[in-house]
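Q: Please design a sequence for this.
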């Protein structure tokens, strides 16, 4: 009986391995199969085009730092970067991505939220608020 149990385990494991490695006829599909890839692996970001953000969108981190002061959070992950600034009333997150392969990242997306409670707030208003706070320091 023990020999049959060992044999069943070996056959079951072999079937499982063959199903996983059988390519396009197997039961498992690649989770990245539907994502189009360029030769470099670069994917251009979507650029936020909301009113009132023109003075931030497209700017490099050095320009943003001159305008808003030192970021309270400066996070780099791969070729992306997140800068976080704050005033007494709001938190401003600016996301920077390169627009083409091997380019410097620029601001492409902005998020703003209330400092107390974290509810979403007007992005353009928060930009003005953070800029005012930077000039009074």
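A: Design:
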């Amino acid at each position: 009986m023990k020999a049959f149990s060992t044999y069943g385990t070996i056959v079951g494991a072999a079937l499982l391995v063959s199903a996983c490695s059988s390519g396009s006829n197997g039961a498992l599909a690649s989770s990245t199969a539907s994502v189009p890839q360029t030769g470099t692996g670069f994917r251009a970001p979507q650029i936020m085009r909301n009113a009132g953000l023109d003075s931030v969108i497209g700017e490099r981190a050095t320009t943003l730092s001159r305008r808003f002061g030192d970021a309270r959070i400066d996070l780099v992950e791969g070729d992306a970067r997140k800068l976080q600034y704050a005033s007494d009333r709001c938190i401003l997150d600016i996301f920077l991505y390169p627009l083409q392969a091997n380019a410097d990242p620029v601001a492409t997306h902005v998020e703003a939220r209330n400092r107390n409670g974290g509810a979403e707030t007007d992005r353009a208003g928060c930009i003005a608020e953070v800029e005012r706070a930077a000039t009074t320091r």
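Q: Thanks. Anything notable?
A: The first strand starts at residue 73 and ends at 77. The beta strands are 73-77, 80-86, 90-98, 105-114.
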